[in-house]
Design a protein that fits this description.
Blueprint: H1 3-19, H2 24-53, H3 63-89, H4 101-118, H5 121-127, H6 134-148, H7 153-173, H8 175-186
Helix pairs in contact: 1-2, 1-3, 2-3, 2-4, 3-4, 3-6, 3-7, 6-7
């Protein structure tokens, strides 16, 4: 299944979660879809690594460009709903009764899928560019737009500490690659 298809299904899961229509079947499907989405997202990044390290490439695919297109699609189409769903679940996430543990797991999976999309190595590299690009400022523009919307500003503010923590953790996890790029930017040419 293509990442774009999984993104559409992931979006449907988010819509159901936002509406509060989470039956046990939908929760199970949501967990499976979210897991598949994260795996497929990881595969796009891994394919880029494999193709760039192999001398002979059978099909010319620009995985970096593909990922950037997907990243922008995520920010424009899914990000606002993702924020709203997480802001609804945030006060509840640690208080689910044991029989509703799957609901908490679904919300955690939804958060992790968005985190993986927003803060993978390709995105962090874009954020370290010496000059701002559309790609490097896209997340900040979406957050600013959501904050200016009265209906979404509370969602952004409630989830922002967790998003920032995930950003810091991603920078720490990829600090070798990101810090090399930052050092190159700071060394006078």
């Amino acid at each position: 299944m293509l990442l774009e298809d999984l993104t559409d299904i992931f979006s449907l899961v988010l819509q159901r979660a936002e509406q509060g229509h989470l039956t046990p079947g939908i929760i199970t499907i949501g967990i499976l879809v979210t897991s598949s989405y994260r795996t497929s997202l990881g595969n796009v990044t891994n394919k880029k690594k494999v193709c760039s390290s192999v001398l002979i490439i059978c099909t010319p695919v620009n995985f970096t460009n593909l990922y950037h297109q997907f990243y922008n699609l995520f920010l424009q189409s899914i990000f606002p709903c993702w924020l709203r769903v997480l802001s609804q679940s945030l006060p509840l996430s640690s208080n689910f009764p044991p029989e509703e543990g799957k609901v908490g797991s679904l919300y955690e999976d939804i958060y992790n899928a968005g985190r993986d999309t927003l803060f993978n190595l390709d995105t962090l590299r874009q954020l370290c560019e010496d000059r701002p690009t559309d790609q490097s400022t896209a997340l900040f523009n979406c957050l600013q737009k959501a904050c200016s919307s009265s209906s979404e500003s509370q969602a952004v503010l409630s989830i922002m500490p967790k998003i920032f923590l995930s950003y810091v953790q991603a920078v720490k996890r990829h600090r070798g690659t990101v810090s090399v790029k930052l050092r190159r930017l700071s060394v006078p040419g």
